[in-house]
Every structure is written in C-alpha cells, then in structure tokens.
Amino acid sequence: MSKLRNKIVSLLFVLILLVSSACSATSKETANEKNKKGSNEPITLTLFSADPHSQWDNMESPVSKKVTEKTGIKLKAEFDVNGGQQKIALMVASGEYPDLILPKGNADKLVEAGALIDLTDLIEKYAPNLKKIYGKYLSRLKWSKDDPSIYILPTAPIDQTYWSPGNGFMLQHAVVKELGYPKIRTVKDFENAIKTYKEKHPTIDGQPTIGLSLLADDWRIMISTTNPAFWATGAPDDGEYYIDPKTYKATLHYRRPEEKEYFRWLNHMNDIGLLDPESFVQKYDQYLAKISSGRVLGLIDADWEVADAQRALREAGKYDRMYGMYPVTLTEEYKHHNFQDTGYLGGWGIGISVDCKDPVRAIKFIDYLASEEGQILQNWGIEGVHYKVVDGKRVIPKEEMEKRNNDANYSKKTGIGVLKGFAPSYGDGVKDSTGQTYTIASPEQVKASYTDVEKDVLKHYGVEMWKDLYPQKEEFPVKPWGAAWNIPVPANSELSVINQRLLDIVKKRIPEAILAKPSDFDKVWDQFMEDLEKAGVEKAEKEYTKLVKERVKLWQDN
Q: Which domains are assigned to the chain?
C-alpha cells in the first residue's frame, strides 16, 4: 500500500513539474509576443555612462515621464566622473553588467570580454527608426574588418551642421570690451589681452584676478591642456595621434616640433604669472566654481566642458564675465580646424549588455528616442507646455526661450535634452516630415540665444556669430578616417598597453614642462621625448597607422 502511495505521489510531482514548465514556457512566449507587439508594461533598465550628467532628472521631469509613458521604460542610471575606465575594468573583472552601457572609448574592453550583444538582428526586427536615422551610414556601425557585428549605436548627431565652434581660446567679454576689441588671432594676441587687463584689474569682486586657468584632472588633461596643442598648430582632433592626410601615417602628436613651441608658450605664461598656479592640482568642480566666480579672464577648452560655468555666470547676470570663443593659433600661418568635416562617426555610443533583462525592450526604447516623435520631444519638449504650433509651425514663446537661455537647470526641470545622448539624433539643420528642423539650433535661434553683451562684442568684430570668426568647413577636405580617437584599439593588445604607458608619461611630463624654469624647458622636453621612445612610441605609431588604414578601407568598401 505504501509503495502504491509513493508511486502516486511521484506521478503527481512529475505532473506538477510538467504543468509548471508548460506555464513558464507559455509565460515566456506571452512576454515575447507582447514585446513583438510593442508592450509598454513598466520595466526599469539599468544604465552606466562613462560621462557625468549634470542635468540628470531621474526620469521625473515632464519630458522624461512622457518617454516612460510611450515606452514603459524607466532608467536607473549611474554616471561616472572619471571617464569610466576603472568602472568598466571592474565590470569586466566581475562579469556583471548593467542593461545599457555608454563606455566612451572603452568599448573595446567590453567587446573583448563578450559583454555586449550584436545588435544587427535586433535592429533589423525591431528598430525601423534606427535604420532610418542611420540610413547610408549603417555600414559604419560595423565593429571592424574582421568582425562586422554592431555592438555600439553611435550617438553623434547625424548630418550635423555646426553653428557654433566647440573648441578655441576663450576670453571674457569684459576683457575685449575694455581693450577696444583688439585682434585675437594668435597666442600672443591672447596673452597681451589677458596681461593688459589683469594689470588694470588685479582683483575682481574682491578676489585675485586669474589670467589663464587650465584643467588637468585625470582624463580632462587632454581636453584643456594637451588637445589645444594640435588645434593651435593647424591640426584637427585625432585624439593622441596626428594623422598625415596623404599617407595616413600616425604620429603621437606631441612629437610634432610645432607643438613643442605651443607648450613653450604655456611655460612662458606660467613664468610671467598669467597661468593659474592651481591648474595642475585643481579638480573639475573647483575649476568650474572658479570660472563661475567671474575672476578667470581666459580659458583654453571645449565649450561643453565649461558649459555649466557659462550658464552659472549667465544666471547670475554676469554677462560681461561670460566668454567668447576665438580661433587662436600659435602664429597666423596656421588655420584652426574646428570645422573640418569628419563625416559621420561610428564608434562611441550606447550598447546593450549580455546581462540585459530584455534586449527587445531596450532596443525599442532607443528606437523610440530616434523616432521623429522622440526627437521632437527631446529637442522641443511637450506641445502646449514648452512650445506651441502656429500655422503648422512649432514656436517657442519668448518667456520660454528666456528660461531655456538663462536657467542653468532648465534641462533637468523640463527633461528637454536629458535623454538625447542615449540614442542617435538628427543634427542641426536636418528637417522632419513637416519641413521643420528637428533641433531648435538654426542660425536665427543661435543668434537669439546670445546676450546683448555678446551681440555687441560680435558686432564690434564685424560678424554675427562666433562661427564667422573661424575658417569654414569648405576650406578643408573631409577626413576619410573620421576621427582617429574614434577607432577602437583592441583591448589587452600591445598597442593598448603601450598607449597607456605613453599617456602616463604625458600626464607627468607636460605639467612638468609647463611649470619648469624657461631655461630648463628644453631639457625637460628632451627627457619627455626620450621617455616616449623608451616606452615604445615608434611601435605604437606603426600599429596605429595600420588601424587608420583599415578604417579608411572599411568605410570606402561600404
């Protein structure tokens, strides 16, 4: 009797398992069917970005809530302040990843670790808007010649027309106004303007006036301290390497003789007391706070790096202490390459990890952000709240535009633009199905965003926009390799190891050269060059040249 009872119990247990398994399978199939039909059931995806995000709204703003309403997706995000390198190394070591990752230049480490999924099939099945927005550039998303997978969705704007320069030498409007709007074309012009004004005004608002402040906080040393060396000597931004436009030969850009003279000029600025003595020890937040105080006359930086400080000055009504952007080079023989066209850049963007809880929902979320509706929402906001439609055209009321231009936390409060960096976007000047531009950045809008002080400064220089001071993109050929910093270097390769050694040397020797006695500059520089050679710079240049040539061929063949 007990044996019969045991058999019955066993049979019941098996039946329960079978029913349970069937229900589970049905549940998964149902979930998959819902995904295919565009389910908007709420789900939270985790996201890691290697960049900070000062306007992150936790998806609680009106625009972000609207995105959640449309997609069912909320993001739990983490933003790094140190470029993501350490955090991504920890992810790889642990083998655990967030759903979505924006790794900047560290995607190679994730690909090597098998952390990112190939998005090719997901795009084909579930992302019509991504296919549309990338269009003819879709082939540029392929990882390499040997691996045609799509691991990263580039987030650079597509077919962008740039209405404002992103890089240059920045001077407070107060400086050029007081000095009668002098010519600001060479480093000597820049130096003279700072020197003359600082002598007249040793303090600003009771604090010591600073002539020029640089930033060398971790990876940011490249943006403010080292990258300007190629801008100032007639080269475009290719990261740590200069690429010969005819032969595609890569040279670590510090090894160019003309750049040595740029750093000699910075050494001179330090020697005569015009360089901020805290330049190589201050942290990013300290740098921004110092600029926001209004006592730093000059900067050499990218617009995005100091944007929060510019907004703070504007919000405080310190319009004279805001900055103009000038195409300064070492001497007038050089052209500033800010507007040289790279073509569309693959490489840096967003990827979906192998640990993503629902890759289909993730790709659909990114696809929505790339849609016409998602793009208008991210650029213009919500109809009836942030803009209105008049005679079929989107119009931003004057009072709303004033908030956009003057409120330092406008994006965070409204959500406009907060999610823009998580998906590809149409560039300035590209028109939607109604014939209006996706973005509000037309020449007219850019001019309207200027303060009266800014307009007056530009008028005295005989132009209407900062862009007009610069050489235009038509003066340069399109770069067939795009931008060399955007080319993936295989993780754990010898080139990757050498590059890190070279960067460590740069971070040590460049500040040392700038702060040395002028009589010691050549000696420090010679040691710098010798250190680079010992670290394998010539081998790195040969390997990088191969990668550049492969990129050119990959893009030409597609």
A: 43-151+344-438 (3.40.190.10), 167-339+449-485 (3.40.190.10)
